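Collaborator request, handled under Task 6.
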Amino acid sequence: MNQAPIFHNFDKAPTHVAPFSHAVEADGWIQLTGQMPTHPDDDSAPLPDGVKAQTRRVMDNLVIVLEGLDLDLSNVLSCRVYLTEFARDYEAMNQTYRSYFSQDRLPARTCIGVTGLARCALVEIDMVARRP
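Structure tokens returned to the collaborator:
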């Protein structure tokens, strides 16, 4: 039986920077909207300096959304990473990103170089998760 989509938004998650839901769920599959390196308590605060700090903030923001869904990073099946300075920031982003997952449970992933992101961010990451 197909479940009607559930559109999730969470008060603890960062303020929306565009018209979207933090996550959309159907039949146990959950698509998490790409998160920016904005501070969840103050959207107007300056973005962290450098891709490592921005990647940490993005991943922490995604964890907030997962926690709102009663899930964690072990439920993540795939990620898409968007970088505005691909050649410069790829390795540094990978070092930070890798620290969030156990080595035997790395999600499938695509990493894409883009010409720009909202708020002039260096990195954005979205995820697909599945309920157990």
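The cover message to the collaborator said: "The two ends are 17 Å apart (CA to CA). The longest helix spans residues 50-68. Please let us know whether this matches your experimental observations."
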